[in-house]
């Protein structure tokens, strides 16, 4: 009933009845074209330029960037960071590339592959892409990478391959489509720096509800 | 840029406030237009631009006044006035008439000929032979309609830069509304007061001794507040300075004040 | 929410005398507007993006029914449900029904202005479901039994001390004046709510027709916890938020954060598409979209259609000198500032909301900063026209306009009126050049002096000079 009323009002306002097949087809064509509008020049750079822009923008959004030369350096780099903050557990995504690593560098720190729970201090995930334009990470929900890892723990550690840094959001959407031919994953997260709020007395504070710290392990693979 | 005839015939849109409060502003406008080579006439049948009715939602009355104004200015190459707000109202006239109403076309035509004075001098007749001097530091308030509707921003500054000895100190938030808003200032006087109080603070912070602007409504509002606050800052319409007509007392001041100061 | 818009003048008077509020508003204008200006300087394409966004929104409105149905199809295809709701009551009822289906006792809420519009919290409470606001600002307001005074910074009217008092009272912990400690306290308290809630409700900034996705844009991450942890995720949103594609959404996202807070990008932009997949380890099992109309569909094809372009960035109120003077609560209902002055009369009636579109100087700053170029001053004037047509305009204004119009339509009489007024005021002013108190003009002279007219009107002087000139020529 409501649906008919709402659509009826809209059509009356547009001075037409239900859209004709031609009108519907035009809308569908427009959708399928996935045409981008204006992509800011700022991100239209060569790969090296995009990597640098990503660094600048992500740092500007208060993300911490740690360079690693190869993925096999990740366990020791993560261990160093976790030890510095005296964390005893790392809740981790179970991507194959992570599981294949030798994690003995963690020593006493436990790496647990599960969803995040209230009280977890640090999590580790990979990311699909980095978007240079605003220093944004793009992640999506997968069986190996539950979404709670991105939000519940106090600190979120993310691996980003330099080869997956793209210029614009549009480039990233194209990657999402290619990697998910059957349709969108349940959740796509675009993350730009750690959680924050200025709701108390207009004073910006980091760490509202999501992670207080966002660490990006930037993997040199290009 | 349009290509005006050698000595264009200009109809002066006096504006109510210049007519009633400050004729010197209208005379200064005439002086500038004549200096720019225009032949100036003052059509007898003009009154108000219609803004009070327009802003109160009375479209029928506004349209009546619009028709009267359109007729009054028939035959003039340009219509020029010392107010971005009133000239801006003339630019709204086409919105008052339906598509097939013959008045719509006439309103469009009027709109295409109507200019605020500093805009006309700068953008239309390319006049900058300002022959005036002003001792002192001024600050310039950008009135809303002129600024946002007509794009008046650089024109008065460009002309003022030709005035000898004049220094312009820009104030903070020069583009923020002063709180006049026509009937707004009497319908919501305490809100208007808050806004004009912010404004006078910025004006005095600029260090200027004279406030200059292009709309008498805003100037009466700000001058009235400056006086009430006891601030020793004068207020003048930009054409008074450009025409070198600053021998009259400033807005809200009297002859004897000048005498006292001297 | 109780409608207090008819008392706008009184609300404003109180707000102007509220020292703490004035301090907060003074601070506020140096925040978002300055950040926005800086962000725009860094993006040369900003103005072109605004044009694109305006045109795209217009295209969407022309095809609104098509895109909404495509959106619905895709939500359903992904296992979700869409509830079409004509009115606020329909929406509240649909949400309560979902809560009953899953036997919900507690519902965590991300920030949603549409839910403020429908009065959802009051409705749920009255029906035995406990809503818990999780946006920090909204949470503070809920504890205080208060309402948002701004659409993206809801507690902008409160200072640190207010929050400190409120938390101390409700959390029963030692008092602190440190914003970081206060935020941590809220984080701890709300963790328990996030984890134990039965339903999570969020708003949506955009709905993507192509995929059936909804997107939330938040800095805190509360919306993500709200929609990820409970078994049921409800999205309450409104019909004008649909966009065709992810690319189209990206255009608006480029404008939204910059126009709102002046950030390059908001921290979390999260898309939700249907419930959790069978192989997912977490996420909600049920996904509902409650699609609210509440008068919007009736705006299509009217002089208020352009308002449907609004993306709720708050730039208009951030830059509005009237909002900056009186704050959001003065407007007396959900949406404050210029966008509220256009929307509110549609939703609660122009008879109740008449002050809102009138309390504007038409300075045009709102239109200047609107990312989708909504002609807000023009639409506020349209509401004044509606008010005038319905004879709702106050008698004093009507008579005033009628009296003035009588003269303005008769040039000779107008001359006389100007001459008499100029003479009268110059006489009252005497030699002082200004008037301290003028009968019937207390609105002016209570606050400022009235500069006196110079004396004779221009028209009289011009006429005299012209005839003298003609005499001389003879």
UniProtKB/TrEMBL annotation, chain A:
<dbReference type="InterPro" id="IPR003741">
    <property type="entry name" value="LUD_dom"/>
</dbReference>
<protein>
    <recommendedName>
        <fullName>LUD domain-containing protein</fullName>
    </recommendedName>
</protein>
<dbReference type="InterPro" id="IPR037171">
    <property type="entry name" value="NagB/RpiA_transferase-like"/>
</dbReference>
<dbReference type="InterPro" id="IPR024185">
    <property type="entry name" value="FTHF_cligase-like_sf"/>
</dbReference>
<dbReference type="Pfam" id="PF02589">
    <property type="entry name" value="LUD_dom"/>
</dbReference>
<feature type="domain" description="LUD">
    <location>
        <begin position="110"/>
        <end position="218"/>
    </location>
</feature>
TrEMBL record, chain C:
<keyword id="KW-0004">4Fe-4S</keyword>
<dbReference type="GO" id="GO:0051539">
    <property type="term" value="F:4 iron, 4 sulfur cluster binding"/>
</dbReference>
<dbReference type="InterPro" id="IPR017900">
    <property type="entry name" value="4Fe4S_Fe_S_CS"/>
</dbReference>
<dbReference type="Pfam" id="PF13183">
    <property type="entry name" value="Fer4_8"/>
</dbReference>
<keyword id="KW-0411">Iron-sulfur</keyword>
<dbReference type="InterPro" id="IPR003741">
    <property type="entry name" value="LUD_dom"/>
</dbReference>
<dbReference type="GO" id="GO:0046872">
    <property type="term" value="F:metal ion binding"/>
</dbReference>
<dbReference type="Pfam" id="PF02589">
    <property type="entry name" value="LUD_dom"/>
</dbReference>
<keyword id="KW-0677">Repeat</keyword>
<dbReference type="GO" id="GO:0006089">
    <property type="term" value="P:lactate metabolic process"/>
</dbReference>
<keyword id="KW-0479">Metal-binding</keyword>
<feature type="domain" description="4Fe-4S ferredoxin-type">
    <location>
        <begin position="301"/>
        <end position="331"/>
    </location>
</feature>
<protein>
    <submittedName>
        <fullName>Putative iron-sulfur binding protein</fullName>
    </submittedName>
</protein>
<dbReference type="InterPro" id="IPR004452">
    <property type="entry name" value="LutB/LldF"/>
</dbReference>
<dbReference type="InterPro" id="IPR024185">
    <property type="entry name" value="FTHF_cligase-like_sf"/>
</dbReference>
<keyword id="KW-0813">Transport</keyword>
<dbReference type="InterPro" id="IPR037171">
    <property type="entry name" value="NagB/RpiA_transferase-like"/>
</dbReference>
<dbReference type="InterPro" id="IPR009051">
    <property type="entry name" value="Helical_ferredxn"/>
</dbReference>
<keyword id="KW-0249">Electron transport</keyword>
<keyword id="KW-0408">Iron</keyword>
<dbReference type="InterPro" id="IPR017896">
    <property type="entry name" value="4Fe4S_Fe-S-bd"/>
</dbReference>
């Amino acid at each position: 009933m409501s649906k008919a009323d709402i659509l009826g009002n809209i059509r009356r306002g547009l001075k037409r009845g239900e859209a004709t097949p031609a009108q519907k087809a035009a809308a569908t064509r427009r959708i399928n074209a996935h045409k981008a509008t204006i992509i800011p020049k700022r991100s239209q750079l060569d790969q090296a330029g995009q990597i640098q822009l990503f660094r600048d923008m992500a740092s500007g959004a208060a993300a911490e960037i740690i360079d690693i030369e190869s993925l096999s350096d990740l366990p020791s780099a993560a261990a160093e960071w976790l030890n510095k903050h005296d964390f005893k557990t790392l809740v981790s995504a179970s991507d194959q590339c992570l599981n294949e690593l030798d994690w003995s560098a963690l020593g006493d720190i436990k790496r647990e592959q599960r969803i995040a729970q209230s009280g977890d201090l640090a999590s580790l995930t990979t990311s699909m892409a980095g978007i240079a334009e605003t220093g944004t990470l793009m992640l999506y929900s997968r069986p190996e990478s539950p979404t709670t890892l991105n939000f519940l723990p106090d600190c979120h550690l993310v691996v980003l391959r330099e080869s997956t840094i793209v210029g614009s959001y549009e480039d990233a959407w194209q990657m999402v489509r290619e990697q998910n031919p059957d349709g969108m994953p349940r959740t796509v997260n675009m993350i730009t720096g750690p959680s924050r709020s200025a709701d108390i007395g207009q004073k910006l504070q980091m760490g509202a509800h999501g992670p207080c710290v966002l660490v990006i392990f930037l993997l040199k693979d290009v | 840029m349009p290509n005006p005839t050698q000595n264009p015939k200009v109809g002066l849109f006096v504006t109510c406030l210049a007519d009633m409060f400050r004729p010197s502003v209208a005379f200064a406008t005439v002086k500038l237009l004549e200096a720019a080579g225009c032949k100036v006439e003052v059509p007898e049948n003009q009154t108000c631009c219609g803004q009070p009715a327009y802003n109160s939602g009375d479209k029928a009355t506004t349209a009546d006044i619009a028709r009267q104004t359109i007729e009054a200015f028939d035959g003039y190459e340009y219509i020029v006035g010392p107010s971005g707000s009133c000239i801006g109202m003339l630019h709204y006239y086409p919105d008052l008439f339906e598509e097939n109403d013959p008045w719509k076309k006439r309103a469009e035509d009027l709109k295409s000929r109507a200019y605020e004075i500093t805009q006309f001098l700068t953008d239309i007749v390319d006049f900058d032979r300002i022959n005036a001097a002003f001792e002192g530091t001024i600050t310039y308030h950008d009135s809303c309609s002129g600024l946002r509707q007509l794009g008046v921003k650089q024109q008065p500054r460009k002309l003022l830069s030709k005035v000898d000895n004049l220094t312009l100190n820009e104030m903070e938030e020069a583009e923020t509304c002063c709180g006049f808003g026509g009937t707004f200032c009497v319908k919501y006087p305490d809100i208007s007061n808050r806004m004009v109080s912010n404004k006078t603070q910025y004006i005095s912070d600029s260090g200027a001794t004279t406030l200059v602007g292009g709309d008498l409504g805003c100037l009466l509002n700000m001058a009235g507040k400056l006086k009430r606050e006891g601030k020793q800052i004068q207020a003048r319409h930009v054409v008074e300075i450009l025409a070198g007509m600053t021998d009259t007392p400033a807005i809200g001041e009297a002859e004897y004040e000048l005498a006292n100061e001297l | 929410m109780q409608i207090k818009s008819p008392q706008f003048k009184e609300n404003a008077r109180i707000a102007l005398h509220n020292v703490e509020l004035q301090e907060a508003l003074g601070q506020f204008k140096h925040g978002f507007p300055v950040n926005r200006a800086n962000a725009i300087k860094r993006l040369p394409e900003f103005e072109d993006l605004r044009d694109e966004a305006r045109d795209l929104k217009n295209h969407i409105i022309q095809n609104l029914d098509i895109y909404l149905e495509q959106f619905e199809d895709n939500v359903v295809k992904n296992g979700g449900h869409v509830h079409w709701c004509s009115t606020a009551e329909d929406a509240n009822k649909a949400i309560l029904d979902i809560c009953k289906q899953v036997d919900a006792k507690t519902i965590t809420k991300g920030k949603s202005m549409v839910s403020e519009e429908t009065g959802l919290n009051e409705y749920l409470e009255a029906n035995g479901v406990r809503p818990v606001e999780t946006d920090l600002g909204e949470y503070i307001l809920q504890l205080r039994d208060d309402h948002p005074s701004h659409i993206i910074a809801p507690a902008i009217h409160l200072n640190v001390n207010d929050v400190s008092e409120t938390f101390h009272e409700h959390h029963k912990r030692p008092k602190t004046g440190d914003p970081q400690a206060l935020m941590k306290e809220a984080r701890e308290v709300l963790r328990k709510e996030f984890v134990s809630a039965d339903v999570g409700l969020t708003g949506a900034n955009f709905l993507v027709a192509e995929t059936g996705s909804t997107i939330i844009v938040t800095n805190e991450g509360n919306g993500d916890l709200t929609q990820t942890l409970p078994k049921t995720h409800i999205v309450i949103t409104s019909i004008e938020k649909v966009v065709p594609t992810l690319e189209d959404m990206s255009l608006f996202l480029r404008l939204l954060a910059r126009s709102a807070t002046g950030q390059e990008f908001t921290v979390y932009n999260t898309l939700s598409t249907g419930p959790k997949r069978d192989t997912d380890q977490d996420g909600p099992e049920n996904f509902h979209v409650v699609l609210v109309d509440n008068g919007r569909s009736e705006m299509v094809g009217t002089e208020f259609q352009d308002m449907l372009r609004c993306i709720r960035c708050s730039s208009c109120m951030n830059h509005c000198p009237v909002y900056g003077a009186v704050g959001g609560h003065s407007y007396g209902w959900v949406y404050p500032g210029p966008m509220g002055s256009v929307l509110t009369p549609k939703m609660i009636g122009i008879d109740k909301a008449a002050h809102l579109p009138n309390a504007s100087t038409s300075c045009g700053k709102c239109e200047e900063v609107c990312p989708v170029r909504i002609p807000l001053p023009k639409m506020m004037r349209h509401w004044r026209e509606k008010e005038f047509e319905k004879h709702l305009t106050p008698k004093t204004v009507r008579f005033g306009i009628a009296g003035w119009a009588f003269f303005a339509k008769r040039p000779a009489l107008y001359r006389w009126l100007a001459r008499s007024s100029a003479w009268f005021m110059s006489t009252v002013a005497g030699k002082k050049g200004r008037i301290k108190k003028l009968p019937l003009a207390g609105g002016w002279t209570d606050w400022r002096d009235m500069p006196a007219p110079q004396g004779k009107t221009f028209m009289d002087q011009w006429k005299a000079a012209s005839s003298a000139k003609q005499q001389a020529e003879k």
